[in-house]
Specification:
mainly alpha, 13 helices, disordered N terminus, peroxidase, heme binding, Peroxidase_pln, iron, calcium
């Protein structure tokens, strides 16, 4: 799993409901979306119940499978950061192309079948109307609420791409071992500034990290940058220098509030308890440390910046109008009519 392992191997409790949302709206007005064709409540005429159906399905599935929320949050990072927010992430492999889901950057991602469950529910109400790209974005939005965060207004009107972008993943998705400069540059390219990047990495507050992404900091010698009080727990959870990637061996990203996306992540990394190299570097790089410290003290600030960055990310180069298609099933592009 790459850099966004909410290990949820983390994509990543956002805004406080009233005041934070108001500020998020003000902050959001500062950026210029790359495509103004997206609007709030795009389906109000063509499928008025669409967003309510998606929210209901997210709530039902979260009650049954708590880790779905982390998966849906991670989906929006992995799909929208790679050239276009077009649900290319959801496509299965074909004889001609490899799925993004099978690439190393997507290690640990799961629960894609539940996106299909949501799609099926929407299709029963409005066949051929709501895109998988919008379902991916709205399921992340509603998942945030389920893990203690607020409702973040996200625009809709995306259409679905027809091809996997697997060859581009390493170019666009930062890895957990990349330098802070590289991480900042990749997100700057889609309009997300330094505070926004620091906030998005706060998604590492939830979920878990598989030992395969952690053992290089534990073996053959423990990384001296780790808080020594945190090391015994990690060694217990990751006892093998070469863990089986298919084994259930992982460490919770945040032992204090593992099911809640909050600013505890920033306090942890300032205390050298960040699991990934990028977590440690975020707390110590001179460009990001002041922001980390501010977010550690002020959860509302974290929430505002997270909401603003997520809005920008969700509007990254979408397919709209007559571009793309509305898939019948999210994992397969529609068959072209002869």
């Amino acid at each position: 799993m790459g850099f966004f392992q909410l290990s949820l191997l983390s994509l990543f409790t956002l805004l406080s409901f009233s005041s934070s949302l108001a500020v998020a709206g003000e902050e959001g007005a500062k950026f210029c979306p790359k495509n103004s064709s997206l609007v709030l409540n795009f389906y109000k005429e063509s499928c008025p119940q669409a967003e309510e159906i998606i929210k209901t399905q997210v709530q039902l599935l979260y009650k049954l499978h708590k880790n779905t929320a982390f998966s849906w949050l991670r989906n929006i990072f992995h799909d929208c950061a790679v050239q276009s927010c077009d649900a290319s992430l959801l496509l299965d492999s074909t004889r001609r192309s490899v799925s993004e889901k099978e690439m190393d950057r997507s290690f640990g991602m799961r629960n894609f079948k539940y996106i299909e469950t949501i799609k099926e529910a929407v299709e029963r109400e409005c066949p051929g109307v709501v895109s998988c790209a919008d379902i991916l974005v709205l399921s992340a939005r509603d998942a945030i609420v389920e893990i203690g965060g607020p409702f973040i207004p996200l625009k809709t009107g995306r259409r679905d791409g027809r091809k996997s972008r697997a060859p581009l993943l390493e170019q666009y998705l930062p890895d957990h071992n990349e330098s802070i400069s590289s991480v900042l540059d990749k997100f700057s390219a889609i309009g997300i500034d330094t505070p926004g990047v620091v906030a998005l990495l706060g998604s590492h507050s939830v979920g878990r990290t598989h030992c395969t992404k952690l053992v290089h900091r534990l073996y053959p010698e423990v990384d001296p940058n780790f808080n020594p009080d945190h090391v015994p727990h990690m060694l217990k959870k990751c006892p093998d220098p070469v863990p089986n990637p298919k084994a259930v061996q992982y460490v919770r990203n945040d032992r204090g509030t593992p099911m809640k996306l909050d600013n505890n992540y920033y306090r942890n990394i300032l205390d050298d308890k960040g699991l990934l190299q990028v977590d440690h570097d975020l707390a110590h790089d001179k460009r990001t440390r002041p922001i980390v410290k501010k977010m550690a003290k002020n959860q509302n600030y974290f929430f505002r910046e997270f909401a603003r960055a997520l809005q920008i990310l969700s509007e990254n180069n979408p397919l709209t109008g007559d571009k793309g298609e509305i898939r019948k099933r999210c994992k397969v592009a529609n068959k072209r009519s002869v």
